[in-house]
Design brief:
The chain is mainly alpha-helical and 146 residues long. Helix content is 74%, strand content 0%.
């Protein structure tokens, strides 16, 4: 079976990128006040766009890309805050129990995955999980609190 042909109004991923990368990077540079961070967020934004396969549905490229870029920035800020909190905890450990750099990286990646999964849960499910795992409450105690 042959792939469906794109309509003349649907840009190819390469064209969409070429047409929009410049202004998105400028917009992000103004927001983030860092050309390096803007480049990173621009690339992450286009990675999300290209993984979605929905260019045919885009009516306003700028609004579409700004929305995705804002989500990428929020994820980035959360990841940075989580990393900072983890490093703050590590800095208080005695050297004798300090995990190796490899283990630190692995633990940080695991924390980020847990954070991402928790973000996908509903409010009560997230709260129940945290009460169970962080406060060591029983199911009965969690039910009482919720």
């Amino acid at each position: 079976m042959l792939p469906a042909a794109t309509s003349p109004t649907t840009p190819t991923p390469a064209t969409f990128y070429a047409d929009n990368r410049g202004w998105l990077t400028q917009w992000l540079t103004a927001k983030l006040r860092s050309a390096f961070d803007a480049d990173d967020v621009t690339q992450d934004t286009f990675l999300r766009v290209m993984s979605g396969n929905n260019l045919a549905e885009v009516r306003d490229a700028k609004s579409f890309l700004c929305t995705i870029a804002k989500r990428v920035m929020v994820d980035r800020f959360r990841r940075n805050a989580l990393e900072k909190a983890y490093l703050d905890v590590l800095s208080q450990l005695p050297e004798t129990v300090m995990p190796s750099p490899e283990l630190q990286q692995s633990q940080l990646e695991m924390l980020q995955m847990v954070d991402q999964m928790l973000d996908g849960l509903g409010g009560k499910a997230r709260q129940a999980f945290l009460l169970s795992q962080l406060d060591n409450l029983t199911y009965a105690e969690i039910a009482q609190q919720l």
